[in-house]
Design goal:
about 600 residues, alpha+beta, 4 domains, five-stranded mixed beta sheet, 22 helices, PDDEXK_4
């Protein structure tokens, strides 16, 4: 990288515009609040307390309770009707408690008590970590014992709306918290002091970036990365060490990295989004003739050629996607999977209703709201696939091909084509069976099925593991605890972006089992690897350098040739219960406790 490359980048007007937006001052980012669950709880306790100095009184608390009603999954909760009754009373006399110690020496994150209303709200906050064994049960039993004649509302607050192990808990997400913050900033701006407003705005930005990233900024980052790829790649490597290595001499590159560190990291993170490149490869490999499509950087989309019959329907919104009443697009999900979605757009109501009813006749189901005249967009198909490397064009292209040619979606495409072409006959039995019985690698299928069963036997929830054609991966609660203390990885890594992950490579005759450390911030990773080495776990010399990214601390290969599904279950159990890996996990538990003590001492 030459000085000319840095000067060209610095004089790129789009780069400077993006830098102003990305590098804006945020008090909470300076304090690294977003990386620590305990600090989220502290800020929430302040917002929820009616008597705190934010001058919002019980507004945030009331809105939090209201959002419990708005979450569909909560409608099955036996206490759902009681929520509305709570809102009929004042909550101004509520007291908020932090880290309430239970009889089992556990600590409840947030406890809100109103003696006047005989109400207790228990909130277990999981920003990065996951619940421990019997944790939710213990908390609820403790509170029920202390407040035996109170109404108790237990809440499980998570990033993505994870289902709690105890069905008595209400689900709440940080996306809902962000929505409340946005309302406060919009509606109550005049009643807030400047300091309070700025603090809430900073917190809102942190959560908004998590759930509603600025699409224009992402497109800018992609554009800059394409034009200055080698320069950004080189600068990104420097960001890991720029604040760690003593620089006694003035160096232009060092100064550049210090000045634009956050912007470089942002461009590197989003610039590697190569959905558009991969989508173009997918179009070339999938279709022989010309089709209607657009390789959008974040939501590339197309009209399947079988659906051209939709052109006879008038579209009420001509700017809708490709200007047709049907669309299929790919997107990256929040949990970093690749998703294919099919949607009916804003065509004339009588045509849209007829289309929905005919789709119901072939087995799809829609809510009455979807069939109302007010509704304009209706998704009728969605499927997801795991992606291991989001910077691998070949893997993304293959995943798009697999999703598009999934037997269920292939059948649906042909059935919808029949409907659009006004053919009422169903696909022949032979044609349907052919689509349902596309070639599948039997060994892979057995391995995937056995893995899912093994996950269930070990009480590992579905959102804590991934199954793909070539790889299996999973995490345990200890890994989430490390993530809470060490933060996410500096770049996209697998699907969880945490410090540790188990992954298994599927080969025709063997499984390759790995415990790996991901690319967290360089100084934290080196400190972690040193602790690991001090505990007697073997690491390479490269693992202790700033340039290292991924470090495998355990590997094991085991033959699966000729094994049945039940025998594969034993293989997974053997791999995980191996005394060497269990010894490593015990030492990692000790390392985590050491880090926790050190972090608490430093606060």
């Amino acid at each position: 990288m030459e000085m000319r490359d840095l000067i060209e980048l610095e004089n790129d007007i789009v780069f400077q515009q993006l830098n102003q937006e990305v590098n804006s001052f945020n008090t909470l980012k300076v304090l690294r609040l977003e990386n620590y669950e305990i600090r989220h709880s502290n800020l929430l306790a302040w917002l929820l307390d009616p008597m705190e100095n934010h001058q919002l009184y019980d507004y945030f608390l009331r809105k939090t309770i209201e959002h419990l009603i708005l979450i569909d999954e909560n409608s099955d909760n036996l206490q759902y009707e009681e929520i509305g009754e709570i809102l009929n009373h004042s909550l101004m006399n509520s007291y908020v408690y932090r880290e309430v110690k239970t009889d089992n020496n556990r600590f409840i994150d947030l406890l809100i008590v109103s003696k006047q209303s005989k109400l207790v709200i228990l909130i277990e906050n999981k920003f990065y970590s996951t619940e421990s064994e019997n944790q939710l049960d213990d908390y609820l039993h403790f509170v029920q014992h202390i407040f035996n004649d109170f109404t108790i509302i237990p809440i499980y607050l998570t990033l993505n709306g994870e289902k709690p192990s105890n069905h008595q808990y209400f689900i709440l997400t940080y996306e809902r918290i962000q929505s409340i913050l946005q309302t406060i900033l919009t509606v109550h701006k005049n009643q807030l002091s400047e300091d309070v407003y700025n603090l809430i705005e900073d917190y809102n930005i942190i959560l908004k970036e998590k759930y509603n990233p600025n699409q224009d900024q992402i497109l800018q980052a992609i554009d800059i990365y394409r034009q200055h790829k080698s320069t950004i790649d080189s600068l990104f490597e420097e960001t890991a060490i720029v604040s760690k290595e003593l620089q006694l001499k003035t160096e232009y590159k060092h100064h550049f990295v210090k000045k634009y560190k956050h912007t470089i990291e942002y461009i590197f993170k989003h610039g590697q989004n190569i959905l558009a490149y991969s989508f173009e490869q997918f179009i070339q490999q999938q279709f022989d003739a010309e089709i209607l499509y657009r390789p959008h950087p974040t939501v590339p989309h197309l009209l399947p050629p079988e659906w051209h019959g939709v052109s006879r329907f008038h579209v009420r919104e001509p700017n809708y996607w490709l200007g047709t009443g049907l669309i299929v697009w790919f997107e990256q999900t929040k949990d970093r999977r690749l998703r294919l979605i099919a949607e009916i757009g804003p065509i004339k109501y009588v045509n849209r209703l007829s289309l929905l009813e005919q789709l119901e006749n072939i087995g799809l189901s829609f809510s009455e709201r979807s069939k109302s005249e007010e509704s304009r967009y209706t998704r009728f198909y969605s499927n997801k696939l795991d992606i291991n490397k989001w910077n691998d064009t070949a893997e993304l292209t293959q995943a798009m091909i697999e999703l598009y040619n999934d037997p269920e979606f292939t059948l649906l495409r042909h059935q919808l084509a029949d409907i659009l072409n006004s053919r009422t006959k169903k696909l022949s039995t032979i044609e349907t069976n052919q689509m349902k019985n596309l070639p599948v690698n039997e060994t892979n299928r057995q391995v995937q099925t056995a893995f899912k069963k093994w996950m269930a036997l070990n009480n590992i929830p579905e959102d804590h593991y991934r199954v793909s054609k070539r790889n299996l991966s999973f995490k345990i609660p200890l890994f989430d605890q490390f993530k809470e203390q060490l933060g996410e990885t500096r770049e996209k890594w697998w699907w969880d972006n945490g410090p540790f992950l188990f992954w298994i490579n599927i080969n025709p005759d063997l499984l390759y089992f790995v415990l790996e450390v991901g690319p967290i911030e360089a100084d934290k990773r080196i400190s972690l690897m040193q602790r690991i080495e001090d505990k007697g776990i073997k690491v390479s010399k490269k693992a202790l350098t700033f340039k290292a990214k991924y470090n495998r601390i355990y590997t094991k290969a085991i033959s699966i040739e000729g094994l049945t599904e039940s025998e594969l279950l034993d293989v997974f159990e053997t791999l995980y219960t191996n005394k060497d890996i269990q010894n490593i996990l015990e030492k990692l538990q000790m390392i985590y406790k050491d880090i926790l003590v050190q972090d608490n001492d430093g606060m």
